[in-house]
Amino acid sequence: MMDPKKRRTIGNRPQVEPPDSEVQGSSSQGTHQVHRVVNSRIEEEPYSLSLQDREMDAFTQSYAVRRVRKSQNNKLTAMLQVRNEQGRYLEEVLHDLSEFVDEIVIVDDASTDGTPDICSAFPKVVRLEVLEKPLFAEEWRLRNALWQAAVSTDPDWLLSVDADELYSSEAKRAIRKLINQDYADWFAFRFYDMWGGRTHYREDELWSMHKRHTATLVRYMPGYSYFYPQQNHHVPRLPLSCTVLPGVHTELKVQHLGWAGSLEDRVRKYLRYKRIDPHGEWGNLAQYESILDPEPRLLPWKEEP
């Protein structure tokens, strides 16, 4: 039986495992269309798939999942967890999201500034939950609270966004093509750590997030078992159980502005990480120290490929 955590590859490109409902004919070999996303283009490539490879994993068989895979008219809901974002990037991010998502759900982690007022000013914010006590020290609980708030609005797709992230124009143009299909249940993007401004991103052995993919867009299927790993920090954006579903790595870009501010802002973040994770239990101590590197390796940002 095929390992559900492995995606079929052609060359070095991750490909989508089509669901059983797409299998045609009764022979031991079938020819199917495998989709991959290159920027905003969805391309098709044929390959042969054996009956053994098409067996559904026991993990997914154990759940009575109502697999709703709509190929049109999908509702896209962005979900954010925020805390004390006034004067940073939140307003810009919400303006940007309002251009290409249908609804926005936000959990405010007990902000002490005007963050809730900023959120409530945007018409597409359909649900805003303000916590009385912060959950940041137990991030998996915060992620779970956000997930529960988001799925209560009956979404078709969920986009997990931080309050300092901007999707490229190419990504925004492509996103409806990504969600209006019935072969993939999640999509991953390339995130770039912008550094000291918006013209350059950082790239070195400790800062290379853009060289791998981060899954932030997922189809919501009622009845499926979603859960997060119980980690206090650096919890994945999407529930861990999403990884066994068919998905696609794209080359679409996202700017992470968390390090794009002033040196003083980066020092504050450095001190916060050292305070909450002094022994590197949840992160990399060397990376924490590198935040203060006076001459990091920076490369020019190009939004379009």
Automatic annotation (TrEMBL):
Residues 82-213 form the Glycosyltransferase 2-like domain. Gene3D superfamilies: Spore Coat Polysaccharide Biosynthesis Protein SpsA, Chain A (3.90.550.10). It comes from the Bacteria. Keywords: Transferase. Residues 23-32 have a biased composition (Polar residues). It holds the Pfam family Glycos_transf_2. Residues 1-10 have a biased composition (Basic residues). Transmembrane segments: none annotated. InterPro entries: Glyco_trans_2-like, Nucleotide-diphossugar_trans. Residues 1-33 are annotated as: Disordered. Signal peptide: none annotated. PANTHER family: GLYCOSYLTRANSFERASE, POLY-BETA-1,6-N-ACETYL-D-GLUCOSAMINE SYNTHASE. GO terms for molecular function: transferase activity. This is Glycosyl transferase family 2.
